[in-house]
Structures are given as structure tokens and as C-alpha cells.
Amino acid sequence: MTTGDLMMIKDAVAKGLYIAVKQAEGKCVFIYPTRLLTLAGYGYVHKPRAKVATRNILSVLCYYGLLEYMGTRSKRQVYCITEKSPLWDAIKKSNGPEDVLRFIEEVIEQ
Q1: Under a CB-based contact definition with an 8 Å cutoff, are residues 18 and 96 in contact?
Q2: What is the mean pLDDT of the chain?
Q3: Cα gap 95→67, rounded to integer Å
Q4: What CA dihedral angle connects 25, 15, 47 and 33, to 10 degrees?
């Protein structure tokens, strides 16, 4: 997988998170890697490399406390973002997926 593909997937993850949280009516959102890419309009949703790269990005977000890993259901990994997460606040206050991507990169680089 090239660096360009990884950047495209990072953009798709940020856009998917943005759409999922902005549309949320409750206090948490359950996230599946495939659903996240579908929300973002990523064209290669069912490619194994895209799924693995998305799971890796979500795992890093879990490591930094932005998401929670909920386990696997029907062979799919499930993550959760709650309103207590700093990522939730950043998404709700952001103007677009670019702001979300910038926030994620700032947190990871620290």
C-alpha cells in the first residue's frame, strides 16, 4: 500500500467520523471500519487492504483515548465514540472533515 493510498484512507476515516458524529442524535456512535469508509464515499470499501488500514487507524485512535474498542461482532470489529471523548467535541465544533483530520494528526503527533 502506497503512502498516497494511506493518506486517502486517513481522509476517508476523518470524513466518515465527521459524518457519523454530526448525524448522531444520541450520546455515542458505534463504528465499523467498512461503514466508516462507506459513509465517506470511499470507492474501495471491500478491498482487504483498505479494511486493514482503517482498522489500524482506528486502533491508534483507541490507543490515544479518542475511541473505545468494543470487541468483534459477526467478524467485524466495533468501535465506539462517546460524547466524553475529546474527538467528539472536536467533530461537533468543526467546520468539516479537514478540521477533524487536523485534530487527529495533532493528537497523534504529541
Answers
A1: yes
A2: 89
A3: 21
A4: -40
